[in-house]
Amino acid sequence: MRVLIVRTSSLGDLVHMLPAITDIATHVPGVTIDWVVEEALTEIARWHPAVNQVIPVAHRRWRKSWWSDQSRSQRAEVLETIRRNRYDLVLDMQALLKSIWLVRAASGVKHGLDWRSAREPLCTFFYDVRHRVEFWQPAVLRQRLLAAAAFDYQWQGDPDFGLQRFGQHNQVQQPYAVIMPSASRDDKLWPAQAWQLVFDRLQMAGLELVLLAGNEHEAARAQELIQNREQTRVQPRSSLTELAQLMAGARIMVGLDSGLTHLSAALGVDTIGIYKASTPVRTPLVGAGYTASLGDRGKEPDAQTVLAAVQDAFTQRSPS
Prior knowledge:
The structure is a single chain. By secondary structure, the protein is of the alpha/beta class. The protein contains 11 helices and 12 strands. Strands 3-2-1-4-5-6 form a 6-stranded parallel β-sheet, sandwiched between helices. Helix 7 runs parallel beside helix 11 (303-315). It starts with a strand and ends in a 5-residue tail after the last helix.
């Protein structure tokens, strides 16, 4: 059976997809899995050993000049690749109108969420088979349930993200904590004074602080947070694979609700997530290590709550 998975973005959503890919590979003998992914995030799909071909799309780039000759030519190439592969089953795990053209282009029986389950219900008109998956559930669970319904199997056990290639490296230098203090939206940011208390606690445990930043603005914010502290650094701009390797070797990760924080948890690292503009009901941290998803939409956790979780991570660390 040859299968096409459609889920193009975002970083955290793709991380949440990985256990479903493992389930499909485990329960569907001889399956070949191709995956359509936004070009900047293709590394994530390629990490999973069960993925055969990654088909890049560039929605984020194309929408700036949708009708240019270059954009039209690149979209035509994507469609040609999808049509040439001749799929038996197409599983839309995104349910957004922006990616329905990819689903329609593929051969094979098209599966997706039903009207009550999809974020954009109009997508359901383009599926041959529709599945009910309750909306208010953790994202990892929803994706596993949808895949199981599409392929008619029963999964069991904890989620396997297929990220064993990274492992957890033995520390040969000073142990470190990874910090993600920035987010795509300012309403997700956590107060600087609260970060300082967390930094104090992590450094008291002998950890170097490695702050992540995705652009110059975030790097400036990170530098401002660490000020003149010793044993701190801002990670230079890195590939997703380089960041995954960095996080896999960390003693602990503390971050805002971001894709990289979810990736840390998926890698099995002890991870504490700070929620302020989103709810952990739908996107809690999931992983084999210690995880704490703190706060909620409109209700950020205070510093003492985060410090208590840090202490829990230090005292309840899972054996590795």
